[in-house]
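pasting for the record
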Amino acid sequence: FPSHDTPGLSLVSIPGDDSYSAEIIPTVFSDELTILYSVPERTDVALALFDITGKAVWFNRTGKDASSPGKNVAKVNIGDQNIVSGVYFMTFTADNFRKTFRLVRL
């Protein structure tokens, strides 16, 4: 499978889906999150993590060539980002598709 790595983010693409979707596991985490998502075409994907006050504490954009059409898996490691325990929101954006997840950092 094609893969792409950027600091704090590792991607793997699996061909075969033609719609937008996103899911994050686990929603309670310590250092690493897995984002399972589908896109119908090559597209730029942005991930942003916000604290409870709405302040952006982590951001990563994959670049258009990183996400292939079909199912993709992104591993996000924020263990070295100095992010304290608490409630956070992660926003996944691809083209006009956006989904926000509530997460808890232990």
